[in-house]
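During the reporting period, our protein records have gained a structure token line. A sample record is set out beneath this paragraph:
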Amino acid sequence: MLRTLKNKNQIMLLSYNNNKLNTKKFKGLYVTLFILFYLFNFSLGVERINIFIKYAYIYSTVLAIYFLFRVTFSKKILIDKRFLFLFITIQLFTIIFCLLNGILFSSIVNAGHQIMFLIIFGGIFILYDFNRINFAQFFCNVIIIVTTLSLIFAFWGFLFGSFSFGPFIYQSFQGYVFRLDGWYSSANYLGPAIAIGAIVLLFKLLNKYLFALTFRHKIWLIVLFIFHVIGIILTGSRGSYGSFLIGILVFLFFQKDLIKIRIKYILYSLIIISLSLFAIIYVMTELGYDWTKIETDFIRYDQLERYKEGGERVYLWTKAFEFLTQANIFHFLFGHGIGFYREKMYIAAHSGYIELFIGRGMLIFFLFLYLLYYSLKKSIKINDEYNIGTLTISLLFLIMAKNVVNAEIPTNTFPGIVFIFILVLLFFKPSKANNFN
């Protein structure tokens, strides 16, 4: 009886918090963060030209200075000390080790955007008097807004080809016509973004303690979830498929007290997704689409053959292993400097872990792995009936899995920015006057 009353009171409070997050002040904040994500992730054409990257750094610097200035005069800063030590040490060592290799600019840029993201999200947490619960609600809203708009943009480009509406530009190119890419200009970057969005949507849909959803809201969330899953499929990004599957499995494993609900919604979602895919295939067949072309673009048999013969990523990873085995003790410990692999191979290593080890050395590599371990441990520790730990651990596993085949962390890509967002959710603490979880 007491537990039921407690849950009812919590749901009423959470409903109030949800309404509070829809005020004009927070809508402005959603727009502010959407611009941040958009500027850092927009690229154009097959060469992935980051035409807004200078504006991205100017914009994020202004935001970081604003929040740093505001937070400096606040007495409510409470952060997990071990996390803060790890995070600052990694950024400081990044700059020092790169300086030892004669590299300054790229190290300051890389460490700088990580620090700026932490200041921006941490500043929001502190200045808006968030606790972990309503910051999780805010986090979900931001992710859903960004990924849904990303998908709308991608589908628009898929249907109508190249277009230009002010800062919203899309340039289609041959070979990717059946692979969604949107403003990311690569299916390998859009894929993990909407995979993250799909898990956040599923989390919001199933979490009756954290979100007071009406029937209409649930229908919209189901539609958006299906929209995201179809989008993931249409990217043709196999790395995104694998990381999304890992994220979903982890999510279901750690989800508490919602077994009946999750099975029901999963079954409904699978049925609706299957029917939607059938309808899409039927319409495309009636319109005379070349299925051989679609199959070739999605499965890419020629690329799989090159993998078997030691080409593509296998070759890139083999060369990376050679760099590590041939490195002297100095470069093994402190790295060759950020960008070394691309400078030597004229292409990225297509693995965040490899690029981290080669560029920054073993010491930073293991410090970063410990930060990941500490984040996972914290996620398990905070997991309760609100399932916030379930959300963070599933997203962390998704991002870590995708980082195997593409550099996602620590970077300024969508998963890289979300990673810092998650760290703030885990390790920033509410003021004593607002100590609800």
